[in-house]
């Protein structure tokens, strides 16, 4: 029987960009088709994409880098790639079978041929929303887990600050910190998000950074004794203010700097001398270095999810055609919670 | 018999300063006297100061801080304090006797009454120059030792960069790195210092940063494969250039930022995003946290000094009256090697 050949809508980057990205920098291509069978003798898999993840690091991939960056640049005219949740349609790989649910790097399209299925994670628990594997149970969840528990090395009772705190990673860091018995404050860019932090995620305090004319004063208000742990998602002026408020032997886990990604030149950070005066460790990390911890992470967090100790808020765009706007919205702070795109519900 | 009362010259800070310090911000006071006997019942000691240490961190103490800094501000009109090598003249403390040689915090004066002699280190080895206890065998030596071996966590064969590399700390870091089998490059502010780095301290390469119009290009020239370890003594533009050239999982030990101490506002550092992309650990440290390692350090380094495996260059000013100029010279980069002041030879 000949394999089905079906239409395959996809989102491509039109050209490399500088500055703030626009929806029109991407394009929905509807003219492609795909054969739903892996080539003879190949160990690839064909997947149907269900959920796609919009993540800040993707901005870097939209620009051309002269030297290789930490993630490869997108290729203009080719499908955008990113994390997603998918169902295996056909497999030439002994570890995967049709019907398997997986998460990992896939394409912003309806069906993807994945030639390195070893990079995919099989989904074990399906009694939780499958979309969680783009966030809570996927790359952002593992990021929050290793960033907080390993890089921040938290101790009960410490003072923790999280920026972009209602985002895919931040909302989890705050909840992990509360479970550890820390005092936790988050910053976010709208009153709605601040409300979520305090009333949904259990942060002790939260503030809307856009309403603060003096970030240093804001931090002093919430941390009169200083900050032990800063989970850094934004960079720039917030980082500068945090540095002035760190306590002795404080730790900063640098996860992202979303406020800087669309600037021609990043803002200057002036207060690094405080890292010496206060003996602060500032450490950048990338989650790919910690994939070996994924199973440990899932086994640890699944019971917490089932028992309602950990909650998660998602912001869902319906349909591949809305994916470009969803991604751009991330840089405008339009998303409330983890931004994802539904390509198909099953 | 009545205790001798002798003249006691001292250097005082006249007023708190901002910006670049001047010799005339300090004053030599010759009108004081001191009684060479500790008060009855006191556990203090009286010391005769032999060598005084000029250290960059002292700049911070010359300004008034609204919030307590990591080192206390000097008190205008009172004697300047700092590290020095001294001989005990009289002691009310059971652990110290007249004739003991010590190093630790003392006054910029001929004789000092030290009310907390527990803070002093007794000098055990006197077959090396006593002045070394202001540098190689004192605070700067321990700083280099813990900063390199503990904070930098070096591995054989790694690429190491040291700024202010001919200074009290830098010259040692480079030699430690060479003893570990690392490739070591140093930067300094004169051709004389560059020559010293290459021909006296055994750095693989060295450059005069004042002759480089593009620090990023200079670093790329010496580190085509990037930097594993940066021992940070200067901050500002050099740090910014280094960040762009760090290798994956690189470490930066932030010891000082002398280029920034006399600025009204520190320069902005723009390239912190590289700490994420390259998973770099940037860690500030202060040597006082490591005093418990001092004996281990001395026992380890004394044989290396005796065998000529470690060498040390000092820049010596003769006489207390030349101490203010020696301290100011540090911020102008006039010193070649560890800057110290001889108050008395015995």
Automatic annotation (TrEMBL), chains A, B:
Keyword terms of this UniProt record: Oxidoreductase
UniProt-recorded Gene Ontology molecular function terms: 2-alkenal reductase [NAD(P)H] activity
Presence of the UniProt keyword Oxidoreductase in the record: yes
Domain Oxidoreductase N-terminal: 9-122
Domain Alcohol dehydrogenase-like C-terminal: 168-300
Record Pfam families: ADH_N_2 (PF16884), ADH_zinc_N (PF00107)
Keyword ATP-binding in record: no
Subunit relationships: Homodimer.
PANTHER family: PROSTAGLANDIN REDUCTASE, PROSTAGLANDIN REDUCTASE 1
Name of the protein in question: Enoyl reductase (ER) domain-containing protein
Organism the protein comes from: Dioscorea zingiberensis
